[in-house]
Amino acid sequence: MEQKSEYIGILVTFLLAGGIATLIIILNALLGPKNKMNPVKAEPFECGIEPIGIVNGRMNVKFYLIAMLFILFDVEIVWFFPWAVILRKLGWTGIFEMFTFVFVLMLGYVYAWKKGALQWEK
Length: 122
Description:
Blueprint: H1 2-6, H2 8-31, H3 39-42, H4 61-77, H5 80-85, H6 87-114
């Protein structure tokens, strides 16, 4: 019986999150503004520059690859801050673990570099 009661908190959290999301969507549909489309809103570009034409081509995959690599390494480097905050509590074990983490991170960086993922032109 104790094992089942541990999951009640998680279930309540999911139910509350789902209920709040559903409530927000319903309230938006009922109370939100009902603006009709006009020619200005129908334009695909909202940067203030007149569109020259509609681009039917695809974006280069390099844009996505560079963005994913940036997010990957950026998110990994965020772990340095909490590590630095509790460094004294961790001692030599924490230092060894962080150097192992940095080593694996550098292996990923070198791998991406060797594969040419960081080069724009090939």
